[in-house]
Amino acid sequence: xxxxxxxxxxxxxxxxxxxxxxxxxxxxxxxxxxxxxxxxxxxxxxxxxxxxxxxxxxxxxxxxxxxxxxxxxxxxxxxxxxxxxxxxxxxxxxxxxxxxxxxxxxxxxxxxxxxxxxxxxxxxxxxxxxxxxxxxxxxxxxxxxxxxxxxxxxxxxxxxxxxxxxxxxxxxxxxxxxxxxxxxxxxxxxxxxxxx
Length: 196
Prior knowledge:
The chain has 4 helices and 7 strands; from the N terminus they run H-H-E-H-E-E-E-E-E-E-H. The protein is α+β, with helices and mostly antiparallel strands and 196 residues long. The protein has a single domain, classed as START domain (Alpha-D-Glucose-1,6-Bisphosphate, Chain A, domain 4, 2-Layer Sandwich), CATH 3.30.530. A hairpin with a 5-residue loop joins strand 6 and strand 7.
């Protein structure tokens, strides 16, 4: 029995050390990606990334009591920073139109995104062109569609699709029902950035 306890303790310590090493590696990859200055990708590469069938895709819709223009602005600089461990979206230059580069900075994940569609007050589409964990998320696309409501609010439809580098042949659509509540909550928290 004593030997079993010792073996279990060694396994727990080894697991903790391995976990800490993995966290350190993830954070180092985030720092490396965020420290590099990203240049806009070619139209050919963007077309290729957007034409690949995502292995995971889902859509959530939320209603906000603010006009589409304010919602659109809230999707820009600092978006998603309301979550712990996420510093949010940062545009690399002042521009926010088509071709603009932005980064998503989180503690253990980072991505470089390029704006492929920008219609203020109506639609914002970005493609994740690089991530800090390419084996898990090689590329992704986010599409925000804003529709004004009769009462002066906005319905926002957020579609997210992604593709890993490995096992891309396996459909991951079965994950959507588990991720959708989190995504709906994440989008709904956008209201904290919009003054009604």
